[in-house]
Amino acid sequence: MTCHDAREQFSALVDDALAPGERAAAEAHLATCAECRRELQRFRDTVAMVRAVGPLRAPAGFVDRVLEAARPVPWYRRVVRSLFLPWPIKLPIEAAAIVLVGIGVALVYRATPVQRFSPVESLAPPMRDRFEGAVPPGSAPGPAREAELAREYSARRELPSGTRELDKTGEMNKAKDHAEASAKSRDAKEAADPSKAPAQAPPAVAAPPADAVQQSATLSRDRDAQKRQERREKLEAQLADKGDAARAEAERAPSAGTEYLQRAPTLAAPRSQVDAAGAKPASPSITGSAFAPPAVSGRLTVADREAALRGVAELATRLGAETYRTDSAAAEDQLVELMMPREVYPEFIRELARLGRWQPINEPAELPARVRVVLQITR
Amino acid sequence: MEGRTDDDAYLVDRLRRGDSRAFEDLVIAYQHRVFGVALRMLGNRAEAEELAQEVFLRVHRAIGEFRGEAKLSTWLYAITSRLCLNRLTTGERRMARQGEEILTRLASREVGPAEEMERTELETALHRAIADLSEERRIVIVLRDLEGLSYEEIAAALELELGTVRSRLHRARMDLRDKLERFLP
Prior knowledge:
The complex is a heterodimer of chains A (379) and B (185). Chain A is an alpha+beta fold and 379 residues long. Chain A is 60% helix and 9% strand. Chain A is built from 17 helices and five strands. In chain A, helix 13 runs antiparallel to helix 14 (219-252). The longest helix of chain A is centred in the middle third of the chain and has 34 residues, at 219-252. Mean pLDDT of chain A is 69; it is low at 120-125, 131-142, 159-172, 194-210 and 250-291. Chain B has 185 residues and is mainly alpha-helical. Chain B is built from nine helices and no strands. Chain B has helices at 2-16, 20-42, 45-62, 72-89, 100-106, 113-132, 135-146, 151-158, 162-179. Chain B is globular, with a radius of gyration of 17 Å. The chains are: A alpha+beta (379), B mainly alpha (185). Chain A binds chain B through residues 8, 10-12, 14-15, 17, 42-43, 45-47, 49-51, 53-59, 62-63, 65-67, 69-70, and chain B through 23-24, 27-28, 31-36, 39-40, 45, 49, 52-53, 56-57, 60, 103, 106-109, 122-123, 126-127, 130, 141, 144-146, 151, 166, 169-170, 173-174, 176-177, 180, 183-185.
């Protein structure tokens, strides 16, 4: 055994962990090597020093802290911990999730079809009531007016891009797109030949309920469709009522033209009165609703209301616009409803500005071919 | 040692039976040893206490898994060593290592003032020498020379071959001999 081999055994020798043969060989070498004996002694002294190090003691209260920590945690604390701890990580994530959900809800809400009627909802209630109950005396008798309203309704359904996203449900979409394409082509034909409109109108009028049935494929769409259907039925009832009244009025005074509709509710009339007045069952001839909100509405502030009213009438005559109705409001305001081609609308607005201060309430960037304008003439 | 083994067997039995006082007895019996190993390995008192607490909580949760093939103390040392080495090797350290003086202060001594100074210097040097060892050598020295485990127990606790334990222990002692040379006669 060499000195190196012997010194490699020192640790086991000190611990008495050598096999008998190894121990005998190591001791035999040590008996003949003074240097290795001295090294072994230094090694023993080192181990003795290390073993003499005093034990460390746990801090006071350690046992109590361990016992406290080992106690079962109540379920509500475990839930809170799992939800919020470690809070520097989980709280920001949870806050971000809440914000994202909020944004998602807002986006879904904005894309909901009901929102497409927001122009109506955003108007002051008295004006909204006017729009919903509006039936032009000039065109009210007969289905022509209903068909026109139905076309506008269909056109509005086609406009928002968000509508497309909501209606993407496989085969149902194809049917819907087909129906919309048909409606578009009909619109184009009718624009060229208005006399055909009454005959072609009924299918377009019937389209919305069919869509509503298709959209009931999912629960949310079901709800939307149901809301729309209820709204339609309500509006149909009002429309039928007003339509009947308008027809009767037209029969009594066919040349009424721009005369006031005295039976129409006033600006100050609450919505409930209008609803009550329009609670009659809908006429079968207008099933499917022909409601169309005005494309443009606004307030014309003038010094002389009567002069402004005359000015608007002259302007309408000059530009070829149809004045459907002028309502005398309680004491302050005058409501005038006109229908004009899109081409003359900019000139109409320019001329209107000469009569008074024009403040548009709703003025979409894209106007339909026939623009319905509702003026609230006020002093 | 036999008595201790019998005590441990009884303690384990009580723990398994759900004796509410058994866990407290276990912590009282092993707190200093577990804390001592953790402090020598981590070198930070607060971190050592945190780790020692974790050791006992693991024992509390897993006492049903203790098969009794090894001694209870070996099982506790095994858990402590593994947690310490994991923390040291995975860079989970949250607290800085403290000076060796704290270890000297924490060591229990009942000696006179003159001897105290001499002992303090030697012990500080010893603690520093031990602390300067590599982690794998330090744990072997701590378990063997400070806690008194046998080679076999160390091998079981660290899941090492017996020859590896012997080799690491020898290297560790040689390192210490070199570092403590000035204190040797």
